[in-house]
Specification:
By secondary structure, the chain is mostly beta strands. It has three helices and twelve strands. A hairpin with a 2-residue loop joins strand 7 and strand 8.
Length: 154
Amino acid sequence: MDDRQFRNAMGKFATGVTVVATEVGGSVHGMTANAFMSVSLSPKLVVVSISERAQMLEKMNQSRKFSVNILSSSQQELSMIFAGQQKNQQEVKFDRLGDVPVLSGALAQIVCEVSAAHVEGDHTLFIGKVTDLHMEDFEPLIYFSGKYRSLAKE
């Protein structure tokens, strides 16, 4: 199988959309990620996967703290900004949960400390110990087969 075929097959898994954010030297850095999952309830752990080519990799290794912001359906533009898909990038305002930057309006803001990092293939898997969270009740932003989607109304 070639890379495109593999990528297309992985795109058949519908996911939510997150922005992972961290802060280094007073500057906030973020990236869109759909490679996110919960790992454990006891202790409370999550994992995010970051490409070796991503600028975010070095920032995560430096800060050792991050937030995962699960985006709501009204935040598609934020997803595109942090995925580098917007030509005219506007400044994004971050709130704080504890001492970590988070995005206002997200379905969930999950604050983590890096408990482990594992290099696998061309990505690093960051295991985060959840230290705080905040939730809202909005519709989620969904990504499937290369396109943003919404949940069907029941």
